[in-house]
Amino acid sequence: MVTCYLRYVIDPHKLEAFEAYGKLWIRLVEKFGGKHHGYFMPSEGVSNVALAMFSFPSLAAYEDYRKRSFADPECQAAFAMNEKERFIISYERSFFRPVFEDDQGVKRAP
């Protein structure tokens, strides 16, 4: 499993637009076989950073999602939202391997 971590720098005056965008992507990621863990909006402290995390069974599955999303009309509409509203200033994408506890309480090996 691979988890994609996105850190967004957003326009703090356009939080509602970014939140609507995030809600769209939760469903869209899951449409393509991913598990979305949510968007995290600014609360206390910094007012222009938001986070998102979602997982796919493998990096290959993530890459397939990315390829298919560029051809999907719903994804294109979501991309267009930001092109029109410009609520995302920049973002960075990183990938992580999650560690979970199994049923016996033993951590999984890498």
UniProtKB/TrEMBL annotation:
<dbReference type="InterPro" id="IPR012577">
    <property type="entry name" value="NIPSNAP"/>
</dbReference>
<dbReference type="InterPro" id="IPR011008">
    <property type="entry name" value="Dimeric_a/b-barrel"/>
</dbReference>
<protein>
    <submittedName>
        <fullName>Uncharacterized conserved protein, DUF1330 family</fullName>
    </submittedName>
</protein>
<feature type="domain" description="NIPSNAP">
    <location>
        <begin position="7"/>
        <end position="99"/>
    </location>
</feature>
<dbReference type="Pfam" id="PF07978">
    <property type="entry name" value="NIPSNAP"/>
</dbReference>
